[in-house]
Amino acid sequence: MKELTAEQGLVxxxxxxxxxxxxxxxxxxxxxxxxxxxxxxxxxxxTAALEKELDDLEFxxxxxxxxxxxxxxxxxxxxxxxTEAQDxxxxxxxxxxxxxxxxxxxxxxxxxxxxxEAGIKSVTVAVTGDLAYGLLKAERGVHRLVRLSPFDxxxxxxxxxxxxxxxxxxxxxxxxxxxxDDVRVDIYHASGHGGQNVQKVAxxxxxxxxxxxxxxxxxxxxxxxxxxxxxxxxxxxxxxxKKIEEQEAERARIKGKHVEAGWGNAIRSYVxxxxxxxxxxxxxxxxxxxDLVLDGDIDPLIEAYLKSDAVGG
Length: 313
Hints:
Blueprint: H1 2-34, H2 37-60, E1 72-78, H3 83-103, E2 106-114, E3 120-128, H4 132-136, E4 141-148, E5 157-168, E6 183-188, E7 204-209, E8 214-218, H5 224-255, E9 268-271, E10 277-280, E11 286-287, H6 290-294, H7 299-312
Helix pairs in contact: 1-2
């Protein structure tokens, strides 16, 4: 019913747009007959609104995947480089939380492992809202940062990497069937900042999917039951994402497209020194407003990638 309602709403928007375009054309004809500049000005305003509505509807057509309208979860993993990479992972976390806030999405940190000195080693965040997965899937891959290191006493330039994974939240558990015998469940004590405030009751949950080697941990809820529920939800999402990636790789192989997954293939570069530039290496979109991007203004980057991927796919 939710999917049907969304489709009906989309049809209504297209029908309404068609009617408004017809009305605008008739008004323009009337203005020409009467030489009425006021009506021409009115049509000009309506035309701009129609163009904006058309752009929104065309953008909506990009979300045709089976899980695109679902909520999602994303994970960030700091790459090699110790404190420098862990600080970069924290910067990315802030960027995505700010982006989600601006879009009206609800976020919840499910698991977080802090760095020894600063930043985070890894984090998993649930994002609730329409199209959360469809938008966030543009962010999966390796993100590269170039800057003068605040942790280097010699103020040298450093390059850091972080990996972003994105999983859809599955509303129907039947979408991905998991054999319980394939999953090892470990219960352990959750810890707070710097290993402090260790809980007396073991509430943290770690799931290991033996056939794939996928590991999911959740520890931010006080209830072991809630952590286990969240962990299973994330595991189903990761298995769904793995299935999607395998399908995309197979399509690319059939089409003869070279696919290489790894740390040497960053999807996006964020350069803060010697110049300011964020460039998406897939769509070629770039902007010098690194401050806005790192403050969550990533919609232009997401849109550019989704459009280029639709054309290339």
